[in-house]
């Protein structure tokens, strides 16, 4: 206990930097490959459904392992876990770079994912252990740099690399950083997270894998396969049933794999609800902007990535600033301001047209990211602050799992809304065009007919995108309403020690 107390009095910044680098390359790797998928399809002669498993499989492994991270963090030391995770990630990266076949590349991505899945919950738990409540905002704000900048940089960086080099270069760039981080972790990491001798419940692992894995796969496939596909509704139904059984089992266990009783803390429960709503709304720009910019406007993937880069930079700059503001003013003020900006900019996205300038799109997207930068991390940190120290691993695991699942659900719902609106608008425009067509124009050339059809399709797709952004605006309004109920968790001085003092649900003060 004395060792941990001394570490908490003087935060282990060197160790945290090592964890930051590992988490950064792991998260960067998640979005790095998306732009390279067409090149991989060509080299290995596989179709779009098969190549998509490089992303879907990575996400599924994360969805299966993240819920188990609470058990792993409590059972093993942070040094053991990080070295194991980084070794798996490094091995997967090396194998992917040398992959002679698509099957080997897919296996390499799964190995990478098994390493990266544990890094984010582990890093968040180390941060919560290393810093007292009153300083966590600044610390978690700096941590937000990793969460925000890495996935945002991925498409821009990979777009430039794929344009000039082989897709294998994407892994070659990541490999030296992962090897360096692995070596440093062996010599520099210390153990600061408390352990308990708890047993692994195999049935819980099976139920969790089927539950979260089924939901993630089902909702992720819905946009492509359609909701009436047996594989989609079958896996969602199986996942939902397994998740209900898993939850009931955890509530009956003395040492659950994932502690659902943490939702009795009102600020944690509220922060989880807000985070779910925000994750759903946030995916609108990530999904819809590339479709609008590349498909409708014909802007190159590289320029599409550059369009989003200023927003990523602003979020990176704002993240530590937001952390300091959180320590001073609390989460409610930041969340209300941030969500208001997000709602306004999302609404303006619902008004874009064929002539909206590139500069206006950059500014609008950047201001939206500015608003988002004030919301997610302060809200999550405020919720985690109410949990007792012993439940921190469960809190971080729950947050990460909910973000994964809500992101998949949000993507599926938004894509469905866009597709349905696009189809109905296309039928309406086609009917109007036929009704207003000059009989003498009926004999137009095949090329002119094709151009007219494409123009109508683009107009219909734009209407679908606008409508979906409007729905996202309404979803963000729900988060804003919830944000007004946030209360600031009073810093509990006993939490500086590694005892199991609980911040009672009643020990909150209004801002």
UniProtKB/TrEMBL annotation:
It comes from Lentibacillus populi. Its main location: membrane. This is MFS transporter. The keyword Transport applies. Residues 15-491 form the Major facilitator superfamily (MFS) profile domain. PROSITE patterns: MFS. GO terms for molecular function: transmembrane transporter activity. Belongs to the major facilitator superfamily. EmrB family. Signal peptide: none annotated. The chain crosses the membrane at residues 12-33, 53-74, 81-105, 111-131, 143-161, 167-187, 199-219, 231-248, 268-293, 305-326, 333-350, 362-380, 465-486. GO terms for cellular component: plasma membrane. It is a multi-pass membrane protein. Keywords: Cell membrane, Membrane, Transmembrane, Transmembrane helix, Transport. It is found in: Cell membrane. The keyword Membrane applies.
